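Supplementary Methods S3. Input chains for the assembly prediction are listed below.
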Amino acid sequence: MAVVVSPAAIDEATFGGLGGWVDRHAGRIMVLPAALIILAFAIFPLIISGYLALSRFAISPGGYTLRFVGLRNFQKLYFGSQQYHLLGTFGAFGVVEWTITIAVALGLLIWLARYLRSPEFWLLGLVGRLVSAALAIAVVLLLLATIVAGGFPGSLVTTLIYVVAGVAVQFALGLGLALLCAQPIRARNWFRVVFFVPLMVTPVGIAYTFRMLADMEKGPLAPLRFALHLGEFAWATDPWLARLVVLAGDTWQWTPFMFIMLLAAVEARPQEQIEAARVDGAGPFQIFRHVTWPAIAPVAATVVLIRLIEAFKIVDLPNVLTNGGPGLATESLTLHSFIAWRTQDLGGSAAIGYTLLFVSTVTCISFFNFSVQRARRYQT
Amino acid sequence: MSIADDAGVWSRPFTPSRIGGQAPAAKMVTYAALVLWTAVVLLPLYWVLITSFKLPVDVDTGPKYFPFLDFQPSLHAWRYIFVDLGRDTLRPYMNSVVVALVATTLAVSIGALAAYALVRIRFQVKLAAVACFILILIGVVVSVAFFAVAWQVAVAAGGALFVLFLSTLARRFRRAASNSDVEFWIISNRILPPVVAVLPIYIMFQHLHLLDTQVALIATYTAVNLPIVVWLMRDFFAGIPIEIEESAQVDGCSRFRIYFSVVLPLARSGLAATYMLVLILCWNEYLLALFLSNANAQTMPILVSAQNGTRGPQWWYMSVLIVIMIAPVVAIAVALQKHIARGILVGAVKG
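Predicted structure tokens for the full assembly:
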């Protein structure tokens, strides 16, 4: 209910009863348009998508038919004919792979056992941790089977590579630049403006530009190839090099985001403590470890969270830069879903979308609960 | 700052001249790193700009770096894109402009209104009412989809049921969602990958015969950007001293009057920052346009990516398109860097 107890002698007089009613319900009326739009364009489509994921779409004379097929779309993607596309081709596990698996599983078990004995234990927390742990072990198994054991990664693994490697590299670069820029140097504002620009550039434009730059025959880096005696060098046909080029474009675009946020956090760190530490003879590394890092940790965690959310949605760069190729090497989940849609496989497309939704939601919520919250508590 | 001028630069290169200062050697490394990253940032932009002035032969015979020294700049690609293909370039461009401007205006006005209410007016939404609404919605959809009820009838019946519920049973339920719950619900939509939602939206616009129109894109972009607007504007509104609003209230202004004539003018800078950010996001949007437009409503990113097949290696034409596509956003970014960065910051640090 509106807190306004008795609003508006003037408006009451002007608008009569209607004005009064509107004013009493102002809060709801103001939120209603936004809520309806989000219902219509996010929640409602989400539900229909869920239904699509469970059905088979077929063009029929005079329209189309939807047939309910249960979990068959998911079965096809995870265990059936499309497994190579979503998850990848698996290699055989050797000693190394099993050792890593067991180590990770043990680590997760210890983590869960600790939570069971801790005073903050409650049932829903345990369920959440079980889901996080299950996803973690599944991802580790998948990465081992498709990369370490000599298989071939599918679109889910590729997306995870983009997310993890991209966010890590961008965070490191952004933090480094922010620390450099926070020092008393000349032309600070100029650097700030220049470093900010890539964030705003249209990703499709970045994709083409990086295709030009990565052209080792006619691009600006061609002399480098001769200098390093690389000989014939075709990044577009090598899976890892192609992924690297996509990651380079992504990093070029998103490092500024990390930079801007972390710069603000670094500049807000307590100056007296740094001065004090310096007088006591602390080196730059010690100052970073004991003063700067605790001060920026909450912002750092939040920034990584925001970036994680966005990183899972990557599509423009791989689609335009490499068209998903060579083979499936650079195909992200969103691109995979789009390709399925283009081949009239609406059910499969929705099922891939739901896979992405599940993985990204669990990752982001886990990160929020286990890192962002902790970092914020750390500060207070 | 001081580079130990009086003592000579080389006498003590590795010790700072004062506490809080920097040793000259460290300073050199700092500048070198910053200049290197500046080069990394500017090289792609520079390359695309000069490529747009190159003749095909200048591109094909290996890298040429400097106009007038390495190669003679030519306007042939620009002439081709603007004169020979004039209409084909202009239409997507105007589509992009119209869609981005209208969608941003809608998203910012609707989102700011909601954000203000969430910050300042305490209200409650009965959970039972929400649950009932969703149940009725599902009922309507199921009855239309499976039992071939005419949709007008189903919607009318659903609406009547909902009103009936609100006026009778709803009073018995107590549990309600507060402002922060609604806020969280709106903002959490950002996690939803657009590809999950776009399939039903596509089908919906197909039924409405609005596919490949600006209307479809505007509606979708507005919806997608609402969470961001709410998220950013919330903090800008919360930063306005509440006393001003209270005194306006005492003077007898209604909530809407306070919002439009007191709060909005005070939140001007935040509003501008949010507007610019959302404008750029709409301008750059790719995936939704890929699904929802193909010829008539095509936007610039789609036009550029469609060149892939038709003129893949013709970098000079591509570069012109990219330059005219990114010039406005780069200009905005350079001119308003401070404000936009502040907008992003406010949202993230408190989020």
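Residues 1-7 of chain B have pLDDT under 50 and may be disordered. Chain B has four domains: 1-41, 52-84, 89-122+181-350, 125-177.
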